[in-house]
Structures are given as structure tokens and as C-alpha cells.
Design goal:
alpha/beta; 5-stranded parallel β-sheet; two-stranded parallel ribbon; globular; disordered N terminus
Length: 370
């Protein structure tokens, strides 16, 4: 009997423990259910009160950002739409066309403009050099911005950092050539592209991606070192990639050894005769040129001229030595459009009819720079 009583006592204690455990378990379940239900209701209420555009913005944020190296998608096909994405045809490419996938213009310039009256665009080839800081100081003193067509010749390697200074001074940095070796770069379209891309990447790095979408041929676009087929191939391929070129209509002849007085006379005479783009140089030996920049600017200011850097909006056909090749490439081009004046002037090359008597007369005039 005592044994039975002892067992019953133990059993009772076990039963008590089991009841306690069950009660604790039920409490835990109730707490979890209560918390979970509250959280769910809160989420539901928040979701119902969230604006629709907030949901779409979250979805947009979840999309991966486009690579900065991607060429922008095609836009409307209207070359007059400045700032829209440059349109690139990527089908059926072969040979050099598939090389340098980042060597494309990014945005459309829009329809080119005629030159303004009494505006001069100072241009300097073959920089940077040890004279670049002094040239920038002269420009700054006269509140003038200019355009630099840059190279990377062996004697310039220590001066490449001046490209950043040119850009930060508000001037324009454009490709001239990397090696500036006529025989090498004009051997083929492939050779030209390799040289151009090398210089373009240097400028992009120094200017944080602000290399100009235009360039200048070493020796001009009519350089006799190019065969007719190479010239045509280069202009066609560069136009396809969105790059166009400026020659010039005033020659300082500093490249031919003109002294300071002759440089001043050549440039100011060209300006007074209606020229807009003087060709000068910024190599380390062109001290005579440097000495006359301030005087040339003062001549212009005193005679009512203003000075601007090229920004790509000026119609390049006015200064082009190779319009017979360049102009036909612009027909039905989704990215480029001549100014109205020069579209009429070059109507025959574009394969369009003149729109007026004045336009017909203009289109029959001699081609500029031929």
C-alpha cells in the first residue's frame, strides 16, 4: 500500500509537470500567433496605403544599371534632335568596323549652324607642350577659350597632364593624332583607327570622358600622303562612328617657319577677309606663335570680333577640303544634317533638288576648300 501511494505521488508530480509544460507551450504558440498576425496586418495596411508610383520606382531601382561603355540605343532617326542618342548600325560589320566598340559618338550634335558674323575660333594643333601653360595663361587673361587638336608624339610624353589643364580652363580637347606620322597613320583605314583610338582614350582619361566628337586630319583632310581610297575609307568609317572633322580657312603658316610678324599678319588678314578658323600650333618650338596670340585677340576685339571654342555645332562643310567625299555620306544620315544654307549649296552632292533660286545659285558655287 505504501508502495502504491509512493507511485501515485510520483505520478501526480509527473502529471503536474506535464500540465505546466503544456501550458507553457500553448502560451508560446499564442504569443507567436499574436506577433505574426500583427506583423501581417501591418504589412497589409502599409501595402494598401503605398502609392502606385512608389512600387514602380522600387521595381526600377532593382534593375541593374546600364554599363557606361554601352552605346546608347537608337532614337528617332531625326538628325536635328540635338542631345539624343547617336544611332549606330551594328549589323553586317566586318574587319576594322568591329574594332574599338567604345569608339563611337554618344549624342547627336543636331543640325549644324552657319558661322556667325565676326566670330573667330582659334585652333591649336600638336599640343600639349611645355608652352601650353603659358598659352592658357594668355587665353585666360583675355577671357578667350580655344580648341586644341592634340597629339602624343615622343617628345610630348611628359606633357600629357596638360590636357587636363586645357580642359579645366574651359577649352576644347579634340583628337589630331597620336603619333602624327603621315606614312604610318595614312597607310590604311585600320592604321588610322588604331592611332585615333589611342589618342582618343588619352583625352577621355584626362578630361573625364569629354573628348570632342570631331577631329582634325594631320596635314588636313586633303593630305597627299593618303591615297584616294584610304581617304574615302577613313572619312566614311569615322562618319559612321559619329566623328566629323574640321579643316581650316586661315593659315598662320607657323608650321612653315613664319616669324612672329608674319604669323600676326597672316591671321589678322584672314580674319578681316571673313575667315573663321585660324590654324596655329602649340609645340614647344612655336614661341613666335605664342608671342602673337594676345595681339591677335586684341586685334579681333578692337574690330568687333568675338572668340569662341568649337563645340561641334558649326557646319564643318564650310571648312572642309574633302567635301566631294564627306557630303554624300550625309544623305539620309540619321545623325548629321547640314545647315539649311549649305544643304542648298551642296544639293547636287546630296542628290536633292534646290529649293529656291538663291539656293540653286549657292549650290553651283565652287566647293569650299577643294
Amino acid at each position: 500500500m505504501s508502495y502504491h501511494k509512493r507511485m501515485s505521488a510520483r505520478e501526480r508530480r509527473k502529471q503536474i509537470h506535464r500540465r505546466h509544460a503544456a501550458i507553457v507551450a500553448v502560451c508560446i504558440v499564442l504569443v507567436i500567433a499574436l506577433v505574426g498576425g500583427t506583423y501581417g496586418v501591418t504589412r497589409l495596411l502599409l501595402h494598401q496605403s503605398q502609392p502606385v508610383n512608389s512600387v514602380s520606382s522600387v521595381a526600377s531601382a532593382a534593375k541593374p544599371a546600364a554599363s557606361s561603355s554601352e552605346v546608347p540605343a537608337a532614337s528617332t532617326g531625326d538628325p536635328t534632335k540635338a542631345g539624343e542618342a547617336f544611332e549606330v548600325g551594328k549589323t553586317g560589320l566586318t574587319g576594322y568596323e568591329v574594332k574599338y566598340p567604345n569608339l563611337y559618338a554618344r549624342k547627336k550634335i543636331g543640325q549644324w549652324k552657319n558661322a556667325e558674323d565676326k566670330v573667330v575660333y582659334l585652333t591649336f594643333d600638336d599640343g600639349p607642350s611645355s608652352l601650353t601653360p603659358q598659352l592658357l595663361e594668355v587665353l585666360k587673361k583675355n577671357n578667350v577659350k580655344a580648341t586644341f587638336f592634340l597629339t602624343n608624339q615622343p617628345e610630348q610624353r611628359r606633357d600629357m597632364h596638360y590636357i587636363k589643364d586645357i580642359y579645366e580652363a574651359g577649352c576644347v580637347c579634340a583628337v589630331h593624332s597620336s603619333c602624327h606620322n603621315y606614312k604610318k597613320i595614312y597607310a590604311s583605314v585600320d592604321a588610322f583607327l588604331a592611332d585615333f583610338n589611342e589618342m582618343y582614350e588619352i583625352i577621355q582619361k584626362q578630361t573625364n570622358g569629354h573628348a570632342a566628337p570631331f577631329f582634325r586630319f594631320p596635314g588636313g583632310s586633303n593630305n597627299p600622303q593618303m591615297t584616294a581610297s584610304v581617304r574615302q575609307g577613313i572619312i566614311k568609317e569615322m562618319t559612321r562612328r559619329g566623328f566629323f572633322f574640321y579643316d581650316w580657312d586661315i593659315d598662320s603658316y607657323d608650321a612653315m617657319g613664319a616669324d612672329a610678324n608674319a604669323i600676326y599678319a597672316n591671321v589678322t588678314k584672314g580674319i578681316s577677309n571673313g575667315g573663321n578658323i585660324p590654324l596655329m600650333h602649340n609645340t614647344a618650338v612655336k614661341k613666335a606663335t605664342l608671342s602673337q596670340i594676345g595681339n591677335i585677340i586684341q586685334y579681333g576685339v578692337q574690330n568687333g570680333y568675338t572668340f569662341k571654342p568649337l563645340d561641334g555645332t558649326l557646319d564643318p562643310s564650310m571648312y572642309c577640303f574633302s567635301n566631294q567625299i564627306f557630303i554624300p555620306l550625309l544623305k539620309d544620315n540619321p545623325n548629321f544634317k547640314l545647315s539649311d544654307k549649305h544643304e542648298a549649296r551642296f544639293a547636287s552632292l546630296l542628290g536633292i533638288s534646290s529649293v529656291s533660286t538663291s539656293s540653286t545659285a549657292a549650290s553651283s558655287a565652287p566647293l569650299g576648300g577643294q
